[in-house]
Amino acid sequence: MIAIYPGSFDPITFGHVDIIERGCRLFDRVIVAVVSNPNKTPLFTMQERIEQILTATSHISGVEVDCFSGLTVAYAKSKGAKVLIRGLRAVSDFEMELQMAHTNKTLSEEIETVFLATSNEYSFLSSSVVKEIAKLGGPIEHLVPDAIASLLKQRFNAG
To answer: Which member of 29, 77, 89, 153 is catalytic?
Structure first.
């Protein structure tokens, strides 16, 4: 069975990698799908984020990386996926994610959403937190893979 793990992944964190690893144990294939969101201004380009995800997940079998714009359920259908994977860090995530899952269900009855609770060590982690720490010159090596930490440092030192 194919599952889609959609997100902006700007940048990918160890929390994302954890969800991808665990999703790959549950499903035959997990497509990590970078969403093009016109309401967000990402730090990294779409292609940079795809390359970062490929690097961060190179040790995981069953992962494919792609990008899309538009409705997630339409993208899932185009890939033959029946499941959307969503990570939950806290109760605050649950409310928004549940609303999104219910909305997606009204758009496509055959697509299910599976929630994976983030591992405890990543329950506080978000891409926004990582970017803020990196911007202020703090250590991020415990939050993102080494290659992504280097890219973040380069981006903020160059800016």
So the answer is: 89
The active-site residue, picked from 49, 86, 127, 131, is 127
Q: pLDDT tens across 127-145, in order?
A: 999 999 999 999 999 999 9
Active site residue 89: yes
What's the pTM value of the predicted model, to 2 decimals?
0.93
135: annotated active-site residue: no
CA dihedral of residues 129, 135, 136, 139 (deg, nearest 10): 70
Task: Assess whether 49 carries a catalytic annotation.
Answer: no
